[in-house]
Amino acid sequence: MKALVLSGGKGTRLRPLTFTCAKQLIPVANKPILGYVLDQVAETGIKKAGIITAPETGQYVKDYVGDGSKWKLDVTYIPQEPLGLAHAVKTAQSFLAQDSFVMCLGDNVTGQALSTFVEKFQKEQLDALIILKEVDDPSNFGIAQLDKNGNIVRLVEKPKTPMGNLAIIGTYIFSSKIHKAIARIKPSWRGELEITDAVQELVNRGFKVKAEILDSWWLDTGKKDDILSANAKILDEYIEEDVKGSISNSTIEGRVKVDREARILNSTIRGPCIIGKNTVVEDSFIGPYTSVGDNSQILNSNLEYCVILENVIVKNVERLEESLVGKNAKVTKKQNSATKLHIGDYSEVEV
Question: Do the beta carbons of residue 325 and residue 345 sit within 8 Å?
């Protein structure tokens, strides 16, 4: 079995951050989202992974993943124009050959291991296993209908009329039969080859297509608030107390991770949160669910529920909350009021 990890797309909902960074590389808890996806792929025992990349951001993905040895994966990069998920599979057909494969979106994070789904797929000798999650707003997702045995009988992309609330979350396992199904479908009204149409083709032709309902959390990190939610969830689930930096006249409360090369002076850090390498926090308060990236400076400021990327300066900001701040940004404040920001790389803001 192989893995196909989709790290293309333009990330338009996260601009301006994604002008200079693939959306899959935006960090939560100071680690790119793609890293968590590859962790889960590696845990299945899969050894070969194809990574779909976009022309604009492919090099950033390559710079982060490298040859895949960090995850003990043999990685092949596969460039693709963004013409649909089924088109990505079609583009990767020579890499996938006749092997079964797991397909994951590189910007989706779940709290459940992939290995459990792989075991089910293999044990039941399925042609497709689609992972679903109950949602409150089914009109925004691809929705699946199941029979009483868990077989998929119908898939509809963003239905206008209610037909259930089981959303397709972007994790799939396919046998090689998916290639023939994709060859039989036509582009949708969006001009894309839809994976839902290909799965429906498998169903129509009588192949074994089942679903598994996710029993943990799932986060699609496509927008600013999604990034903040994912950051909070990862900090909640995985961060343990690990304070190794230089701490001077400061208070550390709760589950806080401080890099050994960070410095905390005259400040309070309240977890769960993480402070990156070579970062300085001085005369400041860092509240729960905040990640501060490497080489940043937080000076005379109060932060809570924020994601701060690397090489950022935040100075004299009385209260910064629910904010996503891009690399190399500088945020300073001259007035006393709460501030919410979503700013891109190399920005400078005075408020």
Answer: no
List of E strands, 113-271: 128-134, 142-146, 152-157, 166-174, 209-213, 218-220, 242-243, 246-248, 251-253, 256-258, 263-265, 268-270
Same domain, 246 and 296: yes
Examine the domain organization and report whether 196 and 273 are in the same domain. Answer: no
Say yes or no to pLDDT of 12 above 70: no
Which CATH number fits the domain that encloses residue 290?
2.160.10.10
Domain boundaries, position 252:
240-350
Owner of token pair 């940004």: 329
**pLDDT per residue as tens digits for the range 248-262:** 999 999 999 999 999
Q: What's the full length of the chain, in residues?
A: 351
Residue 133 near residue 126 (C-beta atoms within 8 A): no
Q: Which of 97, 93, 99, 52 is nearest to 76 (CA)?
A: 52
Question: Is 244 found in the same domain as 229?
Answer: no
